[in-house]
Amino acid sequence: MRIHKLALVALTLTLLAAVSFAQGEGTGGLKGKVRVEKGSAGGVSVVVRKGDQEVTRVTTSTGGDFELPHLAAGIYGLTFRKAGLSVLSIETVEVKAGKTRSLDKLFLNIDEGSIAFIKGSVFSDSGRSFPGVRVELTRVLEDGSLKKLDGRVTNDLGQFSFRLPPEAGKYRLTAKAEHMVAAKDVEVDGAVVYRVALSLIPAH
What we know:
Structural class: mainly beta
Number of helices: 1
Strand content: over 45%
Largest sheet: 5 strands, antiparallel
Order of helices and strands: HEEEEEEEEEEEEEEE
Helix content: 10-25%
Number of strands: 15
Number of domains: 2
CATH class of the largest domain: Mainly Beta
Distance between the termini: 103 Å
Radius of gyration: 28 Å
CATH topology of the largest domain: Immunoglobulin-like
């Protein structure tokens, strides 16, 4: 009787394994790495679609990696989305049974409609554009202290540009060159372009 029960258990396990294998034969997977123009590649939502219907979704790791196992063999579309970045959609991605397909060249640019720009030019005391000038960007905190954020060197036309989050804040631009200096504060309160002219004067 004991032998009969053991044989029955063994047969049941064999059947379950066969069913699981048969189900697994019809599935595959996708994996890949998302890169971003600026900021962290973590937290990007990866949505898998079959036509217009969502099948599943995952979120990228801090390094931008993602994996989508157990997808039925077929053709899918994928959408990659994160606040502040452009949306990337790719279509006709084929998943083959028993295989994991690796996706590359997944790059999300900054969504320029969701950020603020400070763009400007630096001029000499005689009113001529000044190339090659270092322009420093700092944030003016509530207590009046300064937090250094970024720096740029003006191009051949004396121009510079900074990208910023659209949240309200006060920023200070400082330019220095050949014993001359210029500074100006800019109040940012939305995702628009703020234009600034910095005129260098002799430093005291």
